[in-house]
Design a protein that fits this description.
The structure holds 2 protein chains of 2 kinds.
Chain A: H1 5-31, E1 41-45, H2 62-71, E2 77-79, E3 90-92, E4 100-102, E5 107-111, H3 126-134, H4 148-152, H5 176-182, E6 183-185, E7 191-195, H6 203-206, E8 235-241, E9 245-250, E10 268-272, H7 277-285, E11 292-294, H8 303-306, E12 321-334, H9 342-351, H10 354-360, H11 364-367, E13 368-370, H12 398-411, H13 413-420, E14 424-429, H14 432-449, E15 453-458, H15 463-467, E16 476-481, H16 492-496, H17 513-524, H18 529-546, E17 549-560, E18 565-566, E19 570-571, E20 576-577, E21 583-584
Parallel strand pairs in A: 1-10, 1-11, 14-15, 14-16
Antiparallel strand pairs in A: 2-3, 4-5, 5-7, 6-7, 8-9, 9-10, 12-16, 12-17, 13-17, 18-21, 19-20
Helix pairs in contact in A: 9-12, 9-14, 12-13, 17-18
Chain B: H1 2-28, H2 46-56, H3 62-75, E1 77-79, E2 86-88, E3 95-96, E4 101-102, H4 103-138, H5 143-157, H6 160-174, H7 192-226, H8 229-236, H9 241-269, H10 273-279, H11 284-293, H12 297-325, H13 327-332
Antiparallel strand pairs in B: 1-2, 3-4
Chain lengths: 586, 333
């Protein structure tokens, strides 16, 4: 074979030319790169693929209520936008005052202010608020929101315990007259009256929920409304695509004159969904997006960049980060209908290496203190330290866990066998930190008690949709709860009673449930607040005695934001920043 | 050829029906109660679950559900009644209550994203892979060949998600060589420059590993072809190396590469999950992944059917292409 050097060098030159062309094209795209959103645009960054819900009737997490309540959905009353305890007081929003009670707190009246409109300029009337509230009754379409309208309004129940009013979408088999009697509008369509089935002294707190906001009937298309809710606030949706972004622009029909509690600082608000967690954190840490804020807190591995060991922001982060107690208690709900053995439930509590989990999450300075139930000490009247677990150890108590499992072997052999052979499923949000935490749970619980845990990682934006579905919920489900307002009436019944808001423990068939239910429901109507508080504390002890939940922490939260944001403060009642007060510095 | 196409099309349609039945059967017969999809916190109420079962059409026998599903492909589908009724126009693959949208719409939105990612990455890895593979084969045993071997080792060792994360964190965030894009995706027809800017790093990420693999394949294929008798004959006739390489070697060597590329492309169109996840591209991969995690059965059925259709279609295209590349296949057909 002979060599042809000229052909060879031509091939090499052409190859190099092709690769050089690609490189130049890439460099050209880089050089012409459009900068990320700048100007007066406030950007929120999140790992979730979408909002759990944007529909006001389906919103139930404090952060979502704080966000949508700041920018889009007005309610009859709202929490005062102030830091500290001052923020927990209620002020008028759409209403002219914080409500007028009569009939022994069973009737409440609210009169709408003048000048409130939807984003198309049409006036908001009593009928619109009445319609908005009615949507919560369509439980087959409007899912996941708070159930206060159904539990409080004076509407009869059928034999199955469901309301005879089925919401605004059904014509047949629907007692709409019952709803019309419970919620009435004045002749001038400005005053709404709620008739309650029982005395509720703080109903003006209940109506701070977005499920008591106005919805225009003509725009309501049921399930799809979750993607395009109509605004009564300072911003409206320009774009909302899951896994992509939401863009809010100014609602030019909103007027500060009729809305003394909200502000409209940025020109535009963008929420970027689906970011990898480390990418989200690095964007803020490197100030790549100076006018941005993470909606998800901070990865534990990045806490040391922002805070010192005591949990105080380091100098470079003063004014850009905070570390505070939030209103939440974290816990793991035990699905009592599946894990119907109190010894097994207690064994998991004793076996778990709480200390390692806390270290993983960043240490006590960031995660908070070990919880002893579902009521936080901040609740004051309703809190009393629970007893009976003095031998619980943060690093796990193998001896106690083993003894409990020995009891379980004879007391409940079926559950014992499943727990130690096939294993128990554990639902948890799909995050990097949780994946690491799962390893600690699996190892420590297996080592100290012989119980096998199998983790089911669920996309965070869909987590509660799935675990609240009784056909999909596992044996254990990670959860957190904050009181809806400063009364454990929004904790104990909501978390423990079937048919209430968040019954992940599914204890309805437990032999000890009947007495618990009787006492809890009686206590809801207790007029003596001190006596009521003592009974809530006793029922918290009851929950711990049966280990219907495995307590986590009285939690803290960390937030961080870009260097151009000002006005950030922690809004205690919602457990989130007061988003509407955030501004972009010039 | 026309008869061949008709036969293949008919066979493909039959396979698609069989796949749709199998997919639908598997998910319809799983031990989940699909009627509980929209129940939320009230799913412990049997009356509500039963009402949902009727609304979603799961109260009829399985074979009837499949016929309704098939009917939806041609005539659209309705859900619920009254003011909250929903309609998904044909071809309807169902409605996702998690994403509040018809599955066909969701797929229609995600497909261009994945197609853009896949096409761009494929063009990149083919150019790089073929170029480096040919150079490595031509200069076998010399420094160019060694360099290509190192490239292959690195490219095949680095997982895609790690490449993507490294590029994103260092190139974009820490060193700020490229600003963080203002959106997750911009359609080509809306702004082609922005479309390319957003996809540049994902293309590089996805192409990197494949380019390494294709470099190796092309190198080996060219080396093998260069040792064939017909190449020796061509040289004996006095043809230049350039002509031998371009007109005789490449066509023979690249025929199997075309098959491989077609099938790889089909697999990518099903969704480059890791790359889409790292770069937050709202494509089919992310859609499928979230549907599996959220037990969103209509989307799972829809994306599985689409993937099957793409693989079948690409198989057909590759077979036709092969007939054009290799005359022997044409004669045999």
């Amino acid at each position: 074979m002979f060599k042809n050097t000229s052909g060879t060098s031509r091939i090499a030159r052409k190859a190099l030319a092709s690769l050089a062309a690609i490189t130049l094209l890439g460099a050209g795209l880089v050089g012409c790169s459009k900068a990320s959103s700048g100007g007066n645009t406030l950007t929120y960054l999140t790992h979730s693929d979408s909002w759990t819900h944007a529909d006001p009737n389906r919103n139930y997490t404090g952060q979502h209520i704080a966000w949508f309540g700041s920018y889009m959905h007005r309610t009859l009353t709202a929490y005062k936008r102030a830091a500290g305890a001052d923020g927990s007081s209620v002020v008028p929003d759409m209403a002219t005052d914080t409500g007028r009670a009569s009939n022994g707190n069973k009737t409440w009246e609210f009169t709408l202010r003048d000048g409130i409109t939807f984003e198309d300029g049409s006036a908001v009337t009593c009928a619109d608020v009445k319609y908005g509230v009615s949507r919560s009754f369509a439980t087959d379409v409007i899912t996941d929101g708070p159930g206060y309208a159904m539990s409080m309004l004076d509407i009869p129940k059928d034999k199955a315990g469901a309301s005879v009013y089925k919401g605004p979408y059904k014509a047949d088999g629907n007692d709409a007259a019952a709803y019309d009697k419970a919620v009435t509008c004045s002749a001038d369509n400005k005053t709404i009256t709620f008739n309650l089935s029982r005395a509720v002294g703080d109903f003006n707190y209940t109506v701070t929920y977005l499920s008591f906001s106005a919805v225009p009937k003509a725009s309501d298309d049921g399930d799809k409304y979750d993607m395009h809710p109509v605004s009564t606030g300072p911003y409206k949706i320009e774009k909302y695509v899951a896994k992509d972004e939401m863009v809010l622009v100014r609602n030019d029909k909103w007027s500060k004159d009729s809305d003394p509690i909200r502000n409209a600082y940025p020109d535009k608000i963008v929420v970027r969904f689906g970011l990898a967690e480390e990418v989200r954190d690095q964007l803020v840490i490197n100030d790549s997006e100076p006018a941005s804020m993470s909606l998800d807190g901070i990865l534990p591995t990045n806490l040391a960049t922002v805070f010192d060991d005591a949990g105080v922001p380091v100098d470079a982060w003063k004014g850009r980060a905070l570390n505070v107690y939030d209103p939440y208690v974290t816990y793991t709900a035990v699905n009592v209908s599946k894990v119907s053995c109190v010894q097994v439930r207690k064994a998991i509590y004793y076996a778990r290496d709480f200390a390692a989990l806390q270290t993983l999450a960043g240490g006590a300075a960031f995660t908070g203190d070990p919880a002893d139930g579902v009521i936080k000490p901040l609740m004051g009247l309703d809190y009393k330290k629970t007893t009976g677990y003095e031998d619980w150890k943060q690093e796990g108590n193998a001896e106690k866990a083993t003894a409990l499992m020995a009891e379980a072997k004879t007391a409940c052999p079926d559950v014992y066998k499943r727990a130690t052979t096939a294993g128990l499923t554990f639902d948890i949000g799909d995050t990097d930190t949780n994946k690491k935490a799962a390893t600690i749970w699996i190892d420590s619980v297996k080592k100290n008690s012989g119980i096998i845990l199998k983790f089911n990682f669920i996309e965070p934006g869909s987590y509660y949709n799935i675990v609240l579905d009784i056909t999909k919920q596992g044996d254990l489900s990670r959860a957190g709860w904050a009181p809806d307002w400063a009364n454990a009436s929004t904790v104990i019944p909501e978390l423990m009673l079937d048919g209430y808001g968040f019954p992940l423990s599914r204890a309805g068939k437990d032999p000890t449930y009947a007495e618990f239910k009787k006492r809890a429901e009686a206590n809801l109507a207790e007029p003596d607040r001190v006596k009521q508080g003592a009974e809530w504390a006793a029922l918290n002890q009851y929950v711990m005695d049966q280990m219907w939940i495995i307590p986590g922490v009285f939690s803290k939260t960390q937030e961080m934001w870009g260097s151009k944001l000002t006005g950030v403060f922690f809004w205690e009642p919602q457990g989130a920043p007061s988003f509407g007060d955030i501004q972009i510095a010039k | 050829m026309f008869g061949y196409l008709i036969r293949r099309t008919a066979t493909s349609l039959a396979i698609l029906f069989a796949v749709s039945f199998a997919v639908y059967a598997i998910f319809a017969l799983l031990p989940f109660d699909p009627a509980a999809l929209t129940c939320g916190k009230n799913c412990n109420n049997p009356a509500i679950i039963e009402a949902n079962r009727i609304r979603l059409g799961y109260d009829v026998p399985f074979w009837q559900q499949y016929i309704v599903f098939l009917g939806g492909l041609f005539a659209g589908r309705n859900y619920g009644q009254g003011a909250a009724a929903l309609h998904c126009p044909a071809p309807s693959l169902g409605y996702s209550f998690n994403q509040h949208e018809c599955v066909t719409t969701l797929i229609g939105r995600a497909l261009p994203v994945t197609a853009s990612l896949a096409i761009g990455a494929m063009i990149l890895w083919l150019i790089i892979g073929i170029t480096l593979g040919v150079v490595a084969a031509r200069f076998r045993g010399r420094s160019a060949d060694t360099a290509s071997t190192v490239f292959v080792l690195i490219g095949t060792s680095l997982p895609t998600f790690l490449t993507g994360l490294l590029l994103l964190v260092f190139v974009v965030i820490k060193w700020k060589i490229i600003p963080f894009p203002s959106g997750n995706y911009t359609p080509f027809f809306e702004n082609p420059i922005e479309w390319a800017q957003i996809l540049l790093l994902p293309w590089i990420t996805l192409a990197f590993a494949s380019a390494a693999l294709y470099t190796r394949f092309v190198r080996n294929a060219v080396i093998e072809t260069l040792s064939e008798d017909f190449i020796r004959t061509a040289r004996a006739k006095g043809l230049s190396e350039k002509v031998i390489l371009r007109k005789h070697t490449l066509r023979a060597a690249l025929a199997p590469i075309a098959t491989m590329a077609g099938l790889d492309f089909a697999a990518l169109l099903g969704g480059a999950i890791l790359t889409e996840k790292v770069f937050n591209l709202p494509g089919l991969g992310r859609l499928s992944l979230s549907a599996v995690v959220e037990y969103d059965l209509p989307i799972i059925v829809g994306t599985t059917l689409l993937s099957a259709a793409i693989v079948i279609a690409m198989n057909l295209i590759v077979d036709i292409l092969y007939a054009f590349i290799d005359p022997r296949v044409r004669v045999a057909a």
